[in-house]
């Protein structure tokens, strides 16, 4: 009877949400910090759903989370009519609710009131430190200028912010990073890119209030890197990722003068604006090295500790696919002193080739108390997931909002999964939190009660 009721409860879960499942993993706390998966949508956990989504496409290469919404940029989605007899392959921005994974209305991308259809026109999407979502296209080794746009997140309309010059050194550019305020209204702005198949990095700077961007290397637009890790590397190869470091304790927190570069044939290394390596994986345990061919890194702070998340393999990883390590950095934020916390997902997002996009996207948002981090993880053509990280996530001894089993601040299908794991004995949430119907025992009747709470709220 118990198995029958549990099966029925699982069927209700499927009814309540077509795809909002969790990765089914229990992650052990490390140094008092916990992590729980809010939801996951990928080839491994939702194999009949994710591959059918329009954002499961090799042209949907990057994604970002901003103010509780996920934006997935896909170039060249559909033929859009600009004028009679004139069509363009229009880009689309897909949107999901970051708390639940539920799909929101997609945005047709437009520029000057017309469909926007540049080749790989929304190859990079991101956000600045003031909540502006930006998009930047791919440019070839024959293209001297790079247009930079902000995105109206309600209408899909692009606004040209600036056109960046590559100067005398013209290389292919794939993925970008922006720090500060891209509008320059509230802070300075810095934009960076590491060129493809070269040792060239680009940097553009604008002071607060400035109309134009200038070269970010003491006036120069680009810099040739001569120091790499591993030392055998001589350029970034294909589609490298650059990530500037935000320093809230500095008088110039958005200067981004320290930055990671993660290339196809290298591992993340920390540089300064002179091109010198500040830190690398040289002193890191070899077991923590990422495999070649995957690019992606981000930092965050929590409980006065400094963390880094970095991609450890692409789809062809040994024993895993499209996963990342979350580590606490060592004293002085050193890479060599890092301590591994978790590998996410513990199993996989997927192991399907995306045609060589390389990039693996991560970004975080903090709650108002700054004691919980929401981490968004996206790998093109394989999937995405949202995790909550903090001391009080994943349930506790005292009940909180009724039905919020995993203590992520929202009651949804991920709590049903958590409750089922509790009943099956694979999770250790508090009885007081899990006894939804208050009958003194935690069993499948509580699953039904929880689903009724969720359905009543929708």
Number of strands: 27
| Average of per-residue pLDDT values | 91
The largest beta-sheet arranges its strands as 7-6-11-10-9-8
- Roughly how many Å is the radius of gyration? 22 Å
* Principal-axis shape: globular
User: Biggest β-sheet: count, sense, barrel?
Assistant: 6 strands, mixed
DSSP strand (E) fraction? 35-45%
What is the helical fraction, as a range of percent?
A: under 10%
Distance between the termini: 29 Å
Which structural class do you get from the secondary structure elements? mainly beta
Specify the number of helices: 4
Poorly predicted runs:
14-19
Can you put this structure into words, describing what you see?
- The protein is mainly beta.
- It has helices spanning 2-16, 413-424, 431-434, 444-456, and strands at residues 34-42, 60-66, 69-83, 86-97, 103-108, 110-111, 114-115, 124-127, 133-136, 145-151, 157-165, 176-180, 189-194, 200-206, 214-215, 222-224, 241-244, 258-262, 269-272, 277-279, 297-302, 305-311, 324-328, 339-344, 360-366, 372-379, 383-390.
- α2 runs antiparallel to α4 (444-456).
- The model is unreliable at 14-19 (pLDDT under 50).
What topology does this entry show?
Elements: H1 2-16, E1 34-42, E2 60-66, E3 69-83, E4 86-97, E5 103-108, E6 110-111, E7 114-115, E8 124-127, E9 133-136, E10 145-151, E11 157-165, E12 176-180, E13 189-194, E14 200-206, E15 214-215, E16 222-224, E17 241-244, E18 258-262, E19 269-272, E20 277-279, E21 297-302, E22 305-311, E23 324-328, E24 339-344, E25 360-366, E26 372-379, E27 383-390, H2 413-424, H3 431-434, H4 444-456
Parallel strand pairs: 6-11
Antiparallel strand pairs: 1-27, 2-3, 3-4, 4-5, 6-7, 8-9, 9-10, 10-11, 12-13, 13-14, 14-15, 14-16, 17-18, 18-19, 19-20, 21-22, 22-23, 23-24, 25-26, 26-27
Helix pairs in contact: 1-4, 2-4
